[in-house]
Amino acid sequence: MRISLSFIVLTSLGALAARPLFLNPSVRAGTALRMDTNALVDSASLVVQGLVLSARGVETEGGMIETEYRLQVERTFEGVDLIERTIRIPGGLLEDGRGLLLAGLPRLGVGEETLLFLSEPSPSGVRMPVGLSQGRYRIARTVDGSRVAVRDQGELGLVDPQTGKVLEAAGQHVRDYAELIAEVEAAVVREQALGPRSGVSSFSEGK
Predict the structure, then answer these.
(1) Which region among 70-79, 138-147, 156-165 has the lowest average model confidence (pLDDT)?
(2) What is the mean pLDDT of residues 81-85?
(3) pLDDT at 107 over 60
(4) Which CATH number fits domain 5-194: 3.40.50.10090, 3.10.310.10, 2.60.40.3140, 2.40.50.120?
(5) How far apart are the C-alpha atoms of 155 and 104, rounded to whole Å?
(6) CA-to-CA distance for 109 and 136, rounded, in angstroms?
(7) Which phi and psi (to 5°) does residue 133 adopt?
(8) Strand ordering across the sheet containing 166-168
(9) Would you state the pLDDT for residue 58?
(10) Closest C-alpha to 46, from 88, 92, 91, 99
(11) What is the 3-state secondary structure (H, E, C) of the chain?
């Protein structure tokens, strides 16, 4: 069973996540281990690409605010292959205006085509994007119609696994879509052949 670093980060925010708060744009940056594509796949139990059909903020009996996303699945790289699936991620906005913003976690937009690297579900069914915002790419098209994968990293702080230093991630990281998908496919094949790695590779903005 994989242990996701993202769940460790969420646990440290437990006191904050246990009660609804108003969204605060000045929330402090989140911090996660810097991860490359191999590390994202190794740490994920579900890697899926699809279209976000709807997003709905919900409040649990324990007072946690989560967002329930409904996806039309285009492709499942790892995990059970479904035509449509619903996932829940911590944080979000309720209809009455209350909300919870967890630093470093992405929020998906309705109509967005997305590639997600998600943890195993918690006992309550919540999944975490692996490496916080590193675990989500938006799929966009350029003027000439080609696809690119865009990662919105906001104020995410990335810990270099070699030095332990925390570096501020760039606001956006843009990848060639075909190149990224080839990396994901290769990482999945490698994991199936060798099993999950014990270590995590560093992530390079230039690759």
Answers:
(1) 156-165
(2) 96
(3) yes
(4) 2.40.50.120
(5) 7
(6) 12
(7) -70, -10
(8) 31-33, 157-159, 166-168
(9) 92
(10) 88
(11) CCCCHHHHHHHHCHHHHCCCECCCCCCCCCEEECCCHHHHHHHCCEEEEEEEEEEEEEECCCCCEEEEEEEEEEEEEECCCCCEEEEEEECEECCCCCEECCCCCCCCCCCCEEEEEECCCCCCCECCECCHHHHEEEEEECCCCCEEEEEECCCCEEECCCCCCEEECCCEEEEEHHHHHHHHHHHHHHHHHHCCCCCCCCCCCCC
Using a 10 angstrom Cβ sphere, with 0-12 exposed, 13-18 middle and 19 or more buried, the burial of residue 39 is buried
Q: Within 13 Å and on the Cβ side, how many CA atoms surround 26? A: 0
Extract the tokens encoding 8: 């460790």
